[in-house]
Amino acid sequence: MKIKKVLVSQPKPTSEKSPYYDIAEKYGVKIDFRPFIKVESLSAKEFRQQKISILDHTAVVFTSRHAIDHFFSLCTELRVTIPETMKYFCTSETIALYIQKYVQYRKRKVFFGSTGKFADLVPLMVKHGGEKYLIPMSDVHNDEVKNLLDKNKIQHTEAVMYRTVSNDFTPEEEFNYDMLIFFSPAGIQSLMKNFPNFEQKDIAIGSFGPTTAKAVKDAGLRLDLEAPTSAAPSMPAALDMFIREHNK
Predict the structure, then answer these.
(1) In this structure, what are the phi and psi dihedrals at residue 241, rounded to the nearest 5 degrees?
(2) Which residue in 131, 160, 161 sits closest to 59, CA to CA?
(3) Which keywords belong to this entry (predicted)?
(4) Which of 14, 136, 144, 167 has fewest C-beta within 10 Å?
(5) pLDDT tens-digit series, residues 202-211
(6) What is the pLDDT of residues 101-142, one digit of tens each?
């Protein structure tokens, strides 16, 4: 199994300093970037079916940049003007800073957690216990957020504002790779949707994270590379080791 062409199911890196480019040059392999999934907003009509009024809330909780993009996109489509008094709670400073894309950061009340974990944002929300929190979410989510907020008796509404869908391949797109790398179970589902007769044969499959690894195996596929590990904490590090081993 010699690796000459790899498909990484993520958007193309914005920086030329990406370790993937170093791997391509180091081993003379071609690495393509092509997401198998994409995130899209619910339509205004779909959102209205949830019977949620955004302006009934005094604070919004963001757990990702996707949540920010789709919240403000929906507000525009719904013609909802967010008041100056709205507060924003974010799981990390990076996400908090991203709000600047849509609102003037200094004029708003923005709070963020220190670790990126939702559980560490909760004490901050408890301090502002009088707020009515709106939580923009994906159609696929677990109950961790709801359980934590219910446990702490925080008044909140979960609102599905975006969803993950298959980023379908066109008939013109070539699909001839020696290795495929996935980062989510949805990516595996998209592979099987796009190529229902997919036969793995000598194609190597790599996955990042335990849930993705499980999805590969549940689909009846062979998992050849699993990351992260203690030796390879990132997918580029794991890929480097794998290609070095197989392209001897």
Answers:
(1) -65, -40
(2) 131
(3) Lyase
(4) 14
(5) 999 999 999 9
(6) 998 766 568 999 988 889 999 999 999 999 999 999 999 777
Dihedral (CA of 120, 121, 124, 129) sign: negative
Give one DSSP letter per residue of the chain, joined into a string.
----EEEESSPPPSSTT-HHHHHHHHHT-EEEE--SEEEEEPPHHHHHTT---GGG-SEEEESSHHHHHHHHHHHHHHTPPPPTT-EEEESSHHHHHHGGGTS-GGGSEEEE-SSS-GGGTHHHHHHTTTS-EEEEEESS--SHHHHHHHHTT--EEEEEEEEEEE-PPPTTS----SEEEESSHHHHHHHHHH-TT---TT-EEEEESHHHHHHHHHTTPPP-EEE--SS-SSHHHHHHHHHHHHT-
Give the pair of three-digit tokens for residue 80: 């909802």
Q: How many CB atoms lie within 10 A of CB 237?
A: 16
What is the CA 206 to chain-centroid distance, rounded?
18
Q: What is the pLDDT of residue 106?
A: 63
Residue with tokens 């003037």: 104
The predicted structure's pLDDT at residue 114: 87
Within 13 A of 2's CA, how many CA atoms are on the CB side? 6
What is the Cα–Cα distance from 89 to 122, expressed in whole angstroms?
A: 10
Which ranges of the chain have pLDDT less than 50? none
Contact between 67 and 162 (Cβ < 8 Å): yes
Evaluate the CA torsion angle 220, 226, 227, 228 in order and state its sign.
positive
